[in-house]
Amino acid sequence: MDKKTQNFKPLKIVATPGHIKTLTEASATKALSELIWNGFDASSQIVTVTLKYNSMEGLDSIIVEDQGDGIPFKDVASYFGEIGDSWKKLKKDNYHHPLHGQNGKGRFKAFCLGADIEWETTFLDQNKYSTYSILGNHNQIEEFKTSDLENNDKGQKGTRVIISNLFKKADELIKDKTLNELTKCFAVFLTEYPNLQLNFNGVKIDPKSVQICSRNYDLTEDCSYITDHSVTLTIVEWDIETDRVINLCSAKGISLNEYEPKNRIKAKGFNFTAYLKSEYFQELENTGTLGLAELEPTVKTIIDIAITTIQAHFRKRISEKYSGIVQEWKDQDIYPYKDKSSLTSVEKAEQEVFDILAVNVQTFLPNFDKTETTSKKFMFKLIAQAITENPESVQKIITEVLGLSKEDQDKLAELLNNTELSSIISSATIVANRLNFLDELESLLFGDKTKKIFTERDQLHKMLENEAWIFDENFTLSQSEERLETVLKKHISKLGDREDTIESFDPVLLSDGRTGRIDLMLSKVNQTRHGEFDYLVVELKRPSKKVDAEVIVQIKKYATAVAMDERFHNVPAKWTFLAISNELDAYAEEESNQRNKPKGLIHDSSQQNITVWVKTWSEIIANARAKLQFINQHLQYEVTQESSQKYLKEVHGKYIPKCIDNI
User: Fold this and answer.
1) 39-63: string of b/e by CB count within 10 Å (b at 16+)?
2) What pLDDT is recorded for position 456?
3) What are phi and psi of 540, to 5 degrees?
4) Mean per-residue pLDDT over the chain, rounded
């Protein structure tokens, strides 16, 4: 022991009544559930809850009774005298079923139901049954009292918890929803252990009696980078109304915490509860971090993976619901999709959107069944094409072509919104278009025939004005081909209350006295630093022009002109200048590969908050393609020469050199 501390006296940490009372905060059903769990944890095969009423038909007391091992008199101090620890921690590894809670806090939740609680318990010790009581009062919550030990000749172990002097919150247990809430709470556990039984006020809890279906999904592989423990998802659909909740459970289905997805899951017409099961959650619960689900990033990530699976589950369920009608359309040869052995995720999304819409169109159109087959086929083809090429136009077809009433239009629009699939299709279109652009831009920049005639000003520049995402998707085009002072005016105008006005600006001069011109200026969409702006200034060179000393001097002059201009002293802005061409000459290569600097960085001024970079088109395209391919792993879009040329011709046809035969 350190000499400084050997004479110190220890101070015992004591939980104050105020702190203990914070542990009583819970809903009525949650508090009751804790007592039920304690009964099962005591090895009881049956736990029974009874509500006792007074002569005025008001709730008088609540009794939770089990046939478990009871609480040994010699262990009562460890059972009731400690918070943050529990006998369950010692037995959890060799117990016959999983134990709920291990921190000794659950018993306090019962005090939200009533002021007085008695645990009347009987246990077996040396072949002799003994009974005693433990009393607790809300006003003296920091102290429990025990009665004297008495012999019991009945030969029945167990614990009877009586809650009396009830609070108003206890009346919530009288409501019909209590039975449903208990059913949902213990659904997975009672399914895992069918030999156990829970009775509530004379009714046996039977999870399957109110279940429409239950399906399991293995998320272990998806979550393998987070935890080595298995992660499974059980989705239970109910034929009763219920709040949508994702229960975070131990591996055996004991609910440890809840997450409310609110509007994150679109599944109109379905009542369900999800159970995420993993021993990983139990570990987090043991360390006290599971309750911080919103702050714990790994839990949030697992929940996000689960929500994606839940959404896919209900898309499939909707498809199953409509499968009979779809088969009729296939038999009539009016269904616009052909059977394929494998579909991409985008094709599946398109088909699912169509099925949802088409089934409801048939419902809302009173004379659909009497319509000629050719008309039905044309109508379906029109909807399918709109979904594929322009999901937003579906609403217009519903309104103007089908002639539905306003009420029916709204219903169909809500259905489309609830699927969240139109956004998938729209995203797929964006990714496909960008991949096509990269493919054909590469051909134009590096083709033996095209790179000599592909000019920077009239062609490359004009295309990139509409494809500025290629440099950085966080930036958008702010200015194009403007003199440097116009760029500065644009920036100053965003800063608000300044004496400088746009009209008063004089030209910004380079070091040699000439005025500078920039090709593209991009500004950051989401400003992460309050009051500070990020700008990216791009200098383009035609494919046949290498980045050399002349280009480097030019781009540095632009940067220096911004840094040294007196109007920008102490202005909160971050400037990035970038020069791009097909190749760098030997000098530029040397400048762009400096020790302890990222590749391409040739100038970094912390004082002026300016960096200057030089890069090749190969680097720019490879980086952009890598980001898109990561997304495309799920969308499975295949770029072909035909698709890339088609996109470039439709979007940028007027900027393509006329002599290129294949465009």
Assistant:
1) bbbbbbebbbbebeeeeeeebebbb
2) 57
3) -95, 140
4) 75
pTM over 0.70? The answer is: no
Q: Where are the domains of the chain?
A: 17-174, 210-297, 332-419, 451-643
DSSP code of 503? Answer: G
pLDDT in tens, 436-466: 788 878 877 777 666 666 665 567 777 777 7
Question: How buried is 591 (Cβ within 10 angstroms: 0-12 exposed, 13-18 middle, 19+ buried)?
Answer: buried
59 in Cβ contact with 166 (< 8 Å): yes
Contacts of 413 (CB under 8 A, 6+ apart): 395, 398
Q: How many CB atoms lie within 10 A of CB 554?
A: 17
pLDDT tens for each residue of 502-548: 444 455 555 555 555 567 777 775 455 556 777 888 888 877 788 89
> Which position has the higher pLDDT, 596 or 646?
596
Q: Is 130 helix (H, G, I), strand (E, B) or coil?
A: strand
Residue indicated by tokens 């050719």: 374
Can you list the pairs that 428-432 forms with residues at least 24 positions away whose Cβ atoms lie under 8 Å?
428/346, 428/349, 428/635, 428/637, 431/628, 431/631, 431/632, 431/635, 431/637, 432/635, 432/637, 432/639, 432/643
* β-pair partners for 576: 536, 611
Ordered alpha helix ranges (H), 535-616: 549-564, 586-591
Burial 402-418 (b: 16+ CB within 10 A, else e): bebeeebbeebeebbeb
pLDDT band at 11 (very low <50, low <70, confident <90, very high): very low
How far apart, in whole angstroms, are the C-alpha atoms of residue 238 and residue 271? 5
pLDDT tier at 27 (50, 70, 90 boundaries)? confident
Q: What is the largest CA-CA distance in the chain?
A: 108
CATH (residue range 17-174): 3.30.565.10
The yes/no answer on whether domain 451-643 falls in CATH 3.40.1350.10 is: yes
For the record, the structure tokens of 229 come out as: 């423990």
Dist. CA 126–CA 613, nearest whole Å: 83
Nearest CA-CA partner of 245 in 403, 256, 97, 284:
256
**Taking a C-beta distance cutoff of 8 angstroms, is the pair 557, 551 a contact?**
no
For residue 429, what pLDDT is reported? 65
Torsion of CA 77, 80, 86, 90, to 10 degrees: 40
301: tokens are: 């990530």
Instruction: Enumerate residues 6+ apart whose C-beta is below 8 A from 566.
Output: none
Question: What is the rounded CA–CA span in Å between residue 250 and residue 637?
Answer: 39
**Other CB atoms within 10 A of residue 32 CB:** 27
Contact in structure between 494 and 502 (CB atoms under 8 Å): no
- Look at residue 375 and give its three-state secondary structure: helix
d(CA 185, CA 153): 36
- SS3 assignment for 378-402: HHHHHHHHHHHHCHHHHHHHHHHHC
Contact 540/460 with Cβ under 8 angstroms?
yes
* Half-sphere exposure in the Cβ direction for 19 (13 Å, CA): 8
The C-alpha atoms of residue 453 and residue 196 are separated, in whole angstroms, by: 80
Non-local (6+) Cβ contacts of 130 within 8 A are 73, 122, 123, 149, 150, 151, 152
**Residue position matching structure tokens 């095209």:** 450
